[in-house]
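Quick one before lunch.
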Amino acid sequence: MTLEAIRYRPGSLQILNQLLLPHETVYDEIRSVRDGYEAIKSMKVRGAPAIAIVGCLSLAVELRAGMGGNDLVCFIRDSLCHLTSARPTAVNMGRAARELMEFTENESMEKNTGRVKSSSCVIGWIEEMLERDVNDNKKIGNYGAQHILSGVPRDSVTILTHCNTGSLATAGYGTALGVVRSLHALSRLKRLYCTETRPYNQGARLTAYESVAEGFPATLITDSMAALAMREKGITAVVVGADRVVANGDTANKVGTYQLAIAAKHHGVPFYVAAPSTSCDLSLESGRDIVIEERPAEELTSINGVPVAAPGIDVWNPAFDVTPHQLITGGIITELGVFLPSELQAALTGRLTAL
Ligand code: MRU
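Model of the MRU complex:
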């Protein structure tokens, strides 16, 4: 069984409201770019690929309803700009916006009108995103599983992951959790350890939920137990997702990833980043250039609306951190293959192919 975070049929978009999981399964209707922006900002939908897909599909829904009038190019540009501002660290929405804008402008130039006469080509481009993402994730799952298993020819493996990178964070299958899914399908997954992922608890609420639903042998730990798990539980590899991988391989992902990579290095555990090429941003040289989103203090001071911190305390709540490429020792798993951080640029620009 695979969970469905995004339900789309031409003209209608529904998202599984992840704020209510794991206790309630409610699909919210997204009727406009405004609804899409709100769902992304409030994290009803989250995960870098899902943010981009829902953002763009919210635009497709409006275009199908005839919005945009006489100046479609302008309407599309403004909508994409607004959607991109909702969450700045994940590059997927910004990248999709740039590519879609290029496509839209080419269409309007080809027709030599300065305008896109019909929105159908733009809608078609957007609707293909769902299928592309699932296909890419399946390749990531397969490449990642083979790479990890090549280091342990006969054994089953124990994986540690962080945050949620599964069907809920993508169009389906997942990235890091897709690797876990592939290992499970091969009957080679001994156990998955998933971190709670404070402050927002994507691990406890979402990865645990997906793991139970999919029947993965899985154990939940707090973030502060990860180093101990590496020492005591025979972790074969750490596999995490990414919100942005830049040219030198530095990777922004859910806050807490950096300390996992340090602990993995100390324990000699290979550390992998699983990400589609749509999460890569070769325009930035190093992780220092990545803008890190800061989220409201309430995510730390309360859980599900129940206060847990002393009133009056100051709070710092960066949603992501950057793992330096030197700590990504296993490799970066993409739909093109598994690459060392130093090989990534060549791989993404077609100068290097996977073995
Ligand atoms: O704040 P979130 O829940 O959107 O953060 C999600 C992550 O950090 C994921 O690891 C990343 O987006 C990859 S999802 C395939």
